[in-house]
Amino acid sequence: MRISKSVFKTVLFILVFVLINALLGFFLEPFRGSSMEMWQNYRQRKNIDMIYVGSSQCVCAMKPDILDKTLGTKSYNMGTNMQSFHNSYLVVRSAVKEKKVKRVILVIDYEMLDCRRGRNFRAEASFQRAMNRGQGIGKKVRNDVAFVSDPDFRGRAASVNYFFPWIYDRDMNISQNVREKMAGKVLDSKEHRDKNGFLPSEKVLDSGVDYITLANVSAWQKEATTLINLRMTDESRKDLEKICLFCRDNQIELDAITVPYPNFITIYSEKSYIQVAGELKDLFRNFGFYYYDFNLAKPSLYQSDLSCYSDNGHMNTKGASRFSLMYANFLKSTTEREALFDTME
Amino acid sequence: MRGLLLPLGISFYTFLSVAYLIDVYNGKYQAERNFLHFFLFVSYFPQLLQGPINRYDKMKDQFFGQHNWNTEQSKRALLLIGFGLMKKFAIADMLAGSVSDVFDGSVQGIPGSLIVFAIFLYAIQQYADFSGGIDIVLGVSELFGIKMMPNFRQPYFSVSLGDFWRRWHISLGAWMRDYVFYPFALTKTMQRFGKWCSQKLGKHFGRVLPAGIANLLVFFLVGIWHGAQLHYVLWGLYNGIIIAVSDLLEPCFTAISDKMHLPVNSRGFHVFRVVRTFIIVNIGWYFDRIYDFQKCMTCFANTVFHFNLSGFGTAMRQEILNPDLAQPVYIMGGYVVAAVALVIVVTDSVMKEQKKDVYAFLQSRRILTRWTVCYLIIFLTLGSFIFTRGIGGFMYANF
Fold first, then answer.
1. Between A6, A20, A161, which is nearest B379 by CB?
2. Using only C-alpha atoms, what is the Rg of chain A?
3. Given B371, B382, B385, which is nearest A16 (Cβ)?
């Protein structure tokens, strides 16, 4: 009798715990977060032959409808916020396996090159949870176990927090979130992707700010006091090599690019920027692929102004349209490409 | 010394072994003949990372005695673990970023009011981090039925710096007392020195001066133990000097309070002493937390000569709530979590100070109250991760 009473109390305690947790999830977890939206739309799409992978820079710069018009492709933007190269690999693998994708455009965000997964828990966990949605229970459990036992997370608070999504995947606009959940649909399409995975934005960067360009970078480097020494971690290198190897082995066309953004050289030391750009070129070349940094594109190839950006690191819809059109023509053309880029040397 | 690999928990390992050797040498207990038993004592995992520094005679019987499952004891242990996790994640980690924002950059021009605020946050962070870690390991050990030495006894309720050190990192203080202070104070040289002082300077000085010198040595070693850096040495010496000077001047303080008819036994005077000690301890935290001596002096100078209370808001927005560093809403959210958790910690401390068994008190309450406390602890800890700016390890695991 006593045992059954204590068992009952324990079960009740756990039930209340689960209930509170569910309530917090209801209030805080977004109705349709960015990762979730990407995976849901991806699963609903029938024909995809080209994908774009990468971080939010990819989500905001690659406009599939414009590229498709020029190239005749059926593409989908699979970028997600702070997407690590590890996750880009998972995306590529899944798209090739499930949708028989033939071409991959990998957008390399320099910020992600020296970002360890352990320090990028929020994005990693949100991505993983979203990827798991709609999978069978067995696969879900396998993926969850793989995630929490990953050397970057096991033994850390992250491996426990993963099971409480409201901690890392949350929408602080609680009232709007609850209203959307009650209605069962997105009520404000702002901050939501289109059906091709592209995130539109009408925001325009404050034009009162001066950014460093290739023309005045040398002077800036002498003047600046806290420049970041850009580097690529071994983890990132291995993940990029894994993507290359997978694409080569599966005869997938891979194009690696860095999209333009205003403060690309304002924050990094020129020397380290040149070095990493060179390392990336070599890495992709070793597998028979190309890497182009469009921040270094000559004006004859591409020119943008601040009205094309929503903030320091992301394009708005105007910028994405302009860039996507140029990039589609770039992919189509057969002219000597190297000559179209500045070497910074 | 960069890149030098040291075994995990080297200092705690050393303290345990040294205490064991001296106790056996002094015949306090017999030497352990079974190497595995000794090895278990020095490498018992809950104590390895940040203590407490247990004694062999207190642990031996517990290690090798019979243990049966005890539900009450396990519930007590789990509550202690949860309480420790809350202190670490919902308090210490919520404040660590703000402390770092103020002290790890340039401190030139930062008003004293913000420096005092950051030191106050550091006082809370340091206590929550260390005592939280200790609560966790005490709880884990208790799950095995093994009670380790307590390491904290509401230190911020101390009435003097000496009292503080009998309540903060108790096992280190006791170790220093037994293996450094007394052996040094009782050397023939120090005894002769004591006699000389009694003859030349009076009985009080004859008793207090040798003890003061022994205290200086102890705190010098405590400083060095924290790290072979000037700021730690200064921090140790500061504590040693304050304790020595307050002991030396004790007759003066007594005379003054007698002359002024101060109600030294009143509740109000007790509160005054607690606040005074808290301020003295916080002055010491300047040396402990501000790693660069020049910077530390600048902070002291700004505290005294450039307090600028009216500039606090602006400095706060510039140094801590600066959107270029972190989203202010997250920092403020972290403060709210820390404040709620702190209410629980202070309530617990007040009850313990009143010699109440908090667990027994909770058990005597209705189930709704008990569970509310448990859920509050759990969800404050989990919720703190919404606002965290990077999880550091335990501060004392570095020593």
1. A20
2. 22
3. B371
pLDDT of residue B49: 81
pLDDT digits (tens, 9 = 90+) for A234-272: 999 999 999 999 999 999 999 999 999 988 878 888 888
Backbone angles phi, psi at A53, to 5 degrees: -125, 150
**8 Å CB contact between A244 and A283:** yes
In angstroms, the CA B311 to CA B308 distance is 5
Range of the domain at B264: 156-291
Note which residues in 78-107 of chain B have CB less than 8 A from chain A.
89
Tell me, yes or no, whether B238 and B117 share the same domain: no
Catalytic amino acids of B? 226
B105 part of a folded domain? yes
pLDDT tens, A25-71?
999 999 888 899 999 999 999 899 999 999 999 999 999 999 999 99
Give me the pLDDT at residue B1, please: 46
Quote the minimal CA–CA distance from B374 to chain A in Å: 10
B chain contacts of residue A17, beta-carbon cutoff 8 Å: 375, 378
Q: List pLDDT tens digits, range B64-86.
A: 888 888 989 999 999 999 999 99
Dist. CA A150–CA A132, nearest whole Å: 16
Q: How far is B120 from chain A (nearest CA, A)?
A: 27
A117 vs A82: CA distance, rounded Å:
10
Nearest CA distance, B282 vs chain A (angstrom): 31
Q: d(Cα A120, Cα A153) in Å, to the nearest integer?
A: 10
Give B-chain residues touching A24 at CB under 8 angstroms: 379
Chain A residue with CA closest to B333: the answer is: A172
The CATH number linked to A273 is 3.40.50.1110
pLDDT in tens, B200-248: 888 888 888 999 999 999 999 999 988 888 999 999 999 999 999 999 9
Contact A71, A328 (CB under 8 A): yes
Cβ neighbours for B219, distance < 8 A, ≥ 6 positions apart: B236, B237, B238, B239, B240, B243
* Nearest Cβ partner for A157 among B71, B378, B391: B391
Report yes or no on B120 lying in a domain.
yes
Contact B169, B130 (CB under 8 A): yes
Task: Report d(CA B248, CA B191) in Å as an integer.
Answer: 17
Q: Which residue of B45, B363, B391 is the best one to mutate when testing the A interface, meaning the one whose CB has the most A CBs within 10 A?
A: B391
ipTM metric: 0.81
Can you tell me the mean pLDDT for A18-22?
96
- Domain-located, residue B2: no
With beta carbons under 8 A apart, name residues in chain B contacting A164.
382
Same domain for B80 and B62: no
What's the rounded mean pLDDT across residues A101-106?
Answer: 96
CB contact under 8 A, A167 and B382: yes
Q: What is the pLDDT of residues B159-214, one digit of tens each?
A: 999 999 999 999 999 999 999 999 999 999 999 999 998 888 888 888 889 999 99
For tokens 């040294």, the residue is B18
For residue B83, the tally of other CB atoms under 10 A from its CB is: 24
Residue A33 confidence (pLDDT): 86
Which of B222, B257, B291 is the C-terminal boundary of a domain? B291
Residues of A in contact with B367 (CB under 8 A): 9
The reply to whether A24 touches chain B by the CB within 8 Å rule is yes
The model's pTM: 0.86
Query: What is the count of structural domains for chain B?
Result: 3
Pick from B71, B367, B385: CB nearest A167: B385
**Chain A residues close to B379, C-beta within 8 Å:** 20, 24
CA distance to partner chain B, nearest, from residue A78 (Å): 26
